[in-house]
Amino acid sequence: MTSRVVVLGAGHAGVEAAASLRKAGFDGAVTLVGEEDALPYQRPPLSKDYLAGTQDSPLPLRGEGFYAGQDVELRTGERVTAIDRTARRLILRDGPPIGYDHLILALGARPRPCRSSTQASTGCATCGPYTTATNYAAGWLPAPRWS
Ligand SMILES: Cc1cc2nc3c(=O)[nH]c(=O)nc-3n(C[C@H](O)[C@H](O)[C@H](O)COP(=O)(O)OP(=O)(O)OC[C@H]3O[C@@H](n4cnc5c(N)ncnc54)[C@H](O)[C@@H]3O)c2cc1C
Questions:
Q1: CA 17 – ligand 1 centroid, Å
Q2: Looking at ligand 1, which residue's alpha carbon is closest to its atom 29?
Q3: How confident is the model at residue 89 (pLDDT cuts 50, 70, 90)?
Q4: Which of 50, 53, 71, 109 is the most buried (most CB within 10 A)?
Q5: Closest ligand 1 atom, CA of 40?
Q6: Exposed, middle or buried, 102 (CB in 10 Å: 0-12/13-18/19+)?
Q7: What are the FAD/NAD(P)-binding domain coordinates in residue numbering (predicted)?
Q8: Separation of 95 CA from ligand 1 center, angstroms?
Q9: Residue with the nearest Cα to atom 7 of ligand 1?
């Protein structure tokens, strides 16, 4: 019986985990689940060219054809709210649960806001997903102060 691996988190680590499974010869089902709506993308340019406005869309980690070509089911825009380890399934904010035989957690990290002062009063802000960088680039949020 073939097994199903679910990779939770469609950032760099998650995409590479899915790719590595195929490269190593795993022939079961591979599902990559991420909450962001975009094709998994590179984060480093967000604080460089994208923020400066010289790049107008996030750079994908892998082309769209990679996922179909490697038989990796890519499920973007899916927020996981809980892991039911007994039943081996992910509980989604919207939609039916996703079952797994093996689960890889590739959830990354989020910036912690500064507690001693509000972001607005200091001009400091965090830079995380591309949607945040888009807001900076559009001037909707105060520009981050890097030094
Ligand atoms: C703006 C910026 C600039 C950077 N520049 C550099 C650089 O110049 N050089 C360098 O070496 N590194 C840089 N980094 C760091 C590097 O990009 C990270 O180390 C890398 O992105 C980590 O990858 P990851 O897959 O572990 O985590 P992440 O990229 O954080 O991916 C985790 C994914 O999991 C998803 N997720 C989390 N929880 C859930 C959930 N409950 N349900 C569904 N999905 C979920 C998140 O939405 C996210 O897409 C930068 C990071 C940022 C944010």
A1: 14
A2: 11
A3: very high
A4: 50
A5: 49
A6: middle
A7: 4-140
A8: 25
A9: 44
The whole-number pLDDT of residue 116 equals 61
Between 134 and 32, residue with greater pLDDT:
32
Is the Cα torsion angle 85, 12, 38, 44 positive or negative in sign? positive
Domain boundaries, the chain: 4-137
Q: Helix (H, G, I), strand (E, B), or coil: what is residue 72?
A: strand
Average pLDDT value over all residues in the chain: 87
Topology of domain 4-137, per CATH? FAD/NAD(P)-binding domain (3.50.50)
Which pLDDT belongs to residue 112?
Answer: 74
Report the distance separating Cα 110 and Cα 45, nearest Å: 17
Q: CA 39, CA 74: separation in Å to the nearest integer? A: 9
pLDDT at 109: 86
Is the pLDDT at 118 greater than 70? The verdict is no
Predicted structure pTM score: 0.90
Q: Please give the Cα distance from 23 to 35 (Å, whole number).
A: 25
